[in-house]
Amino acid sequence: MALPSEAPAPSYAIRRLRADDRAVREELFRFIHVAWGADSWHADRDRWEWQFHGVPTNGHPEPPLWILTRGEDILGQVGAIPVRLSMGAREQPAAWACDLMILPEYWNRGGFPLLMREIARGYPLALVLGMNKKAYALFRRSPGWTDLGVIPRLQLYCSLGSLASARTLVALARQAGSAVRALAPARPPAGLSVRSVARFSAGVTALWDRIVGGRIAVRRSAPWLNWKYAAQPRLAHERLEMEAGGALVGCAVVRVETVGPERLGYLVECFAEPAALVGVTSAAVAHLQQLGVDRITCDVLDPATEEALRRIGFVRRRSGMKFMLRTADAALASMVGDRARWYITRGDADQDRPR
Amino acid sequence: MSRLEELRAVLAEAFTAEADELTDEASPEQISGWDSLTHLNMTVALEERFGVELTTDDIMQMSNVGAIRRVLRAHGVAV
Q: How deeply is B1 buried, as exposed, middle or buried, from its count of CB atoms within 10 A (0-12, 13-18, 19+)?
């Protein structure tokens, strides 16, 4: 009589999540609860559906998420936010890698580079923003990744309380004059009207395409912005359109968050016709100040926007938002490797999230 | 050089470790140069040295030196 054979050990595998994988999705949420916590931003199902099923630039029937499994168990994952980049007159497909996680007991077995290989296979240009220290060290050592530095963080102090820390005062003193301007409310220029809108209008797409010039950036079309800032659950963004002489000249996205005793304002997005940029920025800042914020943070890689912010009193603060990219296409690499051409905000990748 | 000595040489180079540290029980917990990235580099070096093609399952099974030997033996490499 033959003895019953021992069941083979379950195999490790990496695969893309399928939209109809209901059972796997439940296992995925069990993994997310262990990896990040049941109350975490990652575990919010509405946020997850919005990010992985709602992204308008997916261009694929399955959600942009890869899982590392052993049998039925999920041990790791990496997600992507597929995007279309404006690159002068052309559009370039790319993706932000996000939500990379492997259970600690499976670290050091190659899972991290194996998962990232799926992103590199799926998209001609892979981007990462805001890695933690451990991930940053791994990306720095991984072949093919280019480090384009940190995204500048600018802040405006709007209340005496927000100026109270010694470190803040030292930072402001180094940037002479800022403290005085910082506490004075910004004033939008006369002739500029500010409208809070439920959704951005199609005119915003035309505005973006007019102003983008030689910059490299995720294309800020109205559908993209509305997905990011009107349809996103959990975060309450306010969308502003600014007009002068009856024409749309700029737009902004702001939000307010209360953390302990402080009301924090975020200028998440702000772009405008070059001649209107300072005015549009001032109008968005004035809007946040009317909402009673103690300080305003704007993370932005764009010299023109940074200059506009400095003119109304913003100062540079320490930033940990690191930006790296990888492409196997040498011609593309030479174009996208120039940090000076990039336009990145807090709204890119998945960096705009609750504190 | 035996196949086992060849294996130890590959691992020592990949993890910047001494060959005599690489006992069957040696794992990332004991070998400081063994992390996710050097692990994958090591698997590429094994493929080149021994002419094998390793799957995701093989790569993830390699939790210590003994496990690496078992995976290679399953591919017909006498280590």
A: exposed
Q: Which position has the token pair 């005085």?
A: A180
Q: What one-character-per-residue DSSP string does B2-49 give?
A: -HHHHHHHHHHHHHT--GGG--TT--TTT-TT--HHHHHHHHHHHHHH
Structure tokens at A41: 């931003």
Q: Which residue of B has its CA nearest to A107?
A: B36
The pTM of the full predicted model, rounded to 2 decimals, is 0.91
pLDDT given for residue A177 in this prediction: 57
Other beta carbons within 10 Å of A133: 9
Query: Do residues A282 and A295 share a domain?
Result: yes
CATH of the domain at B17: 1.10.1200.10
Helix (H, G, I), strand (E, B) or coil at A52: helix
Taking an 8 Å cut-off on Cβ atoms, the answer to whether B35 and A138 are in contact is yes
A143 and A167 co-located in one domain: no
Question: Residue A216 to residues A85, A87, A91, A224, B26: CA-CA distances in angstroms?
Answer: 7, 5, 10, 16, 47
Average pLDDT, integer, range A118-130:
96
Q: How far apart are CA B7 and CA B17, in angstroms?
A: 13
CB atoms within 10 A of CB B18: 10
CA of A142, closest CA in chain B: separation in Å? Answer: 7
| In the predicted structure, residue A181 carries a pLDDT above the cut 60 | no
* Whole-complex ipTM: 0.89
User: HSE-up of A332 (CA within 13 Å, CB side)?
Assistant: 17
CATH number of the domain bearing residue A217? 3.40.630.30
Contact A12, A114 (CB under 8 A): no
Residue A144, pLDDT above cutoff 60: yes
Using the predicted structure, report yes or no on whether residue A179 has a pLDDT greater than 70. no
Which B positions 53-72 lie with beta carbon below 8 A of chain A? 56-57, 59-63
Of the candidates B36, B56, B63, which has its C-beta nearest A138's C-beta? Answer: B36
